[in-house]
Amino acid sequence: MASGKFITIEGPDGSGKSTQARLLAEYLGKRNRSIVLTREPGGTFLAEKIRGILLDPDTGGMAPEAEVLLYAAARAQHVAEIIRPALAAGKWVISDRFVDSSIAYQGYGRGLDPAMIWEVNRLATGGLVPDLTVVLDIDAEEGLSRITRQRETTGGRAVFDRMEQEETDFHRRVREGYLDLAKQFPHRVKVVSALGQPDAISRQVSGLVEQLHHQKV
Ligand SMILES: Nc1ncnc2c1ncn2[C@@H]1O[C@H](COP(=O)(O)OP(=O)(O)O)[C@@H](O)[C@H]1O
Ligand SMILES: [Mg+2]
């Protein structure tokens, strides 16, 4: 059986990753692709527990190295339990975040050496690399204000998670990190503006995904 494709959706907080991951899953589902839509940190029972630790504001400050390792631990379980089996069964896997998030947030955001983060993640993923990564590009302030609006309309006061709570400069560095990743890996990482209507953005994302069909496997 042909092995499936692995697509990751990346970008700063509030860039529309979860929205676009869902729209892409709908698009591919209509084309009779067998889809697994998943997210990080999370995607398995263990990894969702680690997600709780990582994103709970009550966890408070964390050594950046501990943060990298917790994300990588969650990812190792996610790859072993969900992503690799799905790809082996010929499914298309769409993940809301993957290794590039660790480079952008713990590397550019926290200031850890990206080479070390790649190395830790090589262990976590066994060297699994996405076939396509879409970075949704948005200004840090705009992304954060979308989240504020979302939380205020879905129930009271905006509560930011432990990462979202970081200062605006942190989120600016994260965005720069993603743009650098796109420069370093131009064949894999494609930047799409996160501004505009979700449907219009989704058409750009699905256009990039369609190009995967034409690649040799
Ligand atoms: N293209 C868009 N334009 C305006 N708002 C958007 C767009 N895409 C998503 N949103 C809204 O912005 C907020 C954050 O989107 P979400 O998909 O949760 O982003 P992320 O997963 O990257 O944090 C949500 O309220 C969502 O409805
Ligand atoms: Mg999201």
Please provide a written account of the structure:
The protein has 217 residues and is an alpha/beta fold. The protein has one domain: Rossmann fold. 55% of the residues lie in helices and 12% in strands. It has helices spanning 17-30, 45-55, 64-88, 99-109, 114-125, 140-153, 168-184, 198-213; strands spanning 6-10, 35-39, 92-96, 132-137, 189-193. Strands 2-3-1-4-5 form a five-stranded parallel sheet, sandwiched between helices. The longest helix is centred in the middle third of the chain and has 25 residues, at 64-88. The radius of gyration is 17 Å and the shape is globular. The protein starts with 5 loop residues before the first strand and ends with a helix. Residues 17-18, 96 line the site of magnesium ion.
Helix-strand blueprint:
Elements: E1 6-10, H1 17-30, E2 35-39, H2 45-55, H3 64-88, E3 92-96, H4 99-109, H5 114-125, E4 132-137, H6 140-153, H7 168-184, E5 189-193, H8 198-213
Parallel strand pairs: 1-3, 1-4, 2-3, 4-5
Just give the CATH class: Alpha Beta
Largest sheet: 5 strands, parallel
Would you give the CATH topology? Rossmann fold
Number of domains: 1
Helical fraction: 55-70%
Compressed to H and E, one letter per element, the order equals EHEHHEHHEHHEH
What is the second-level CATH architecture? Answer: 3-Layer(aba) Sandwich
Descriptive keywords:
five-stranded parallel beta sheet, Rossmann fold, binds adenosine-5'-diphosphate, binds magnesium ion, 55% helix
